[in-house]
């Protein structure tokens, strides 16, 4: 379907409740079991009314993992190429709407505004693109702050880990995916300006995302934690930490940039 058709469908009809319920009923137990999902802070999601969830971005599947964690219907942006594919209409009825990457997309912003005006829950990734390094975050953009200020919607900072490189060919890896939500941030007192939007994202939202992300990355795996509890897991935990440090140092080498 075209961008215009997708935006009209997203604004006027939005999520198909029966379809969303069926897909959620199938996907949720699979994701929670196969990917051994750990979820914390989901109670911070407002039970009703306009709100923005602002997580870091590692994978195409991030919106689905976030959607599994919340009780409400989740709306999210998807790159135009996905919406124009043969399954595009299905994605739109599951909450997606198109965005043109690498440029200012007025249609996507207006659809996002309309979703918030209707009292919807919207997921926006401040980084704007996927950051595939499992140990690093990107630099946030101010779009989520701008929409929050314009529509008076609270922002819920969130972090996700383990969702990158989930597949080997068509087969999913049995990885552990973790999602954490921080307390919502109210923005009603700030001016609706570019400076205000930057302050919301850079000084209020992103430090919370970084804190939750680092906390999740520092959590030991179930096996390592069990061994540590038995007093024999110190070496395992130390090796895990050593691997993370080596990855970080390697990513900073000049010939790796």
What does this structure look like?
This protein has about 260 residues and is an alpha/beta fold. The protein has 2 domains: about 40-75 and about 105-220, no CATH class; about 220-255, no CATH class. About 45% of the residues lie in helices and about 15% in strands. It has a 7-stranded mixed beta sheet, sandwiched between helices. It has a two-stranded antiparallel sheet with strand order 7-8. Strand 7 (about 165-170) and strand 8 (about 170) form a beta hairpin.
Can you give keywords for this protein?
10 helices; globular; 257 residues; alpha/beta; seven-stranded mixed sheet; 2 domains; 9 strands; two-stranded antiparallel ribbon
Topology as H/E string? HHEEHEHHEHEHEEEEHHH
| Poorly predicted parts | none
Shape by Cα distribution: globular
Structural class: alpha/beta
Give the end-to-end Cα distance, rounded to a whole number of Å. Answer: 38 Å
Structural domain count: 2
Report helical residue fraction.
40-55%
Radius of gyration, taken over Cα atoms and rounded to an integer in Å: 19 Å
Number of helices in the DSSP assignment: 10
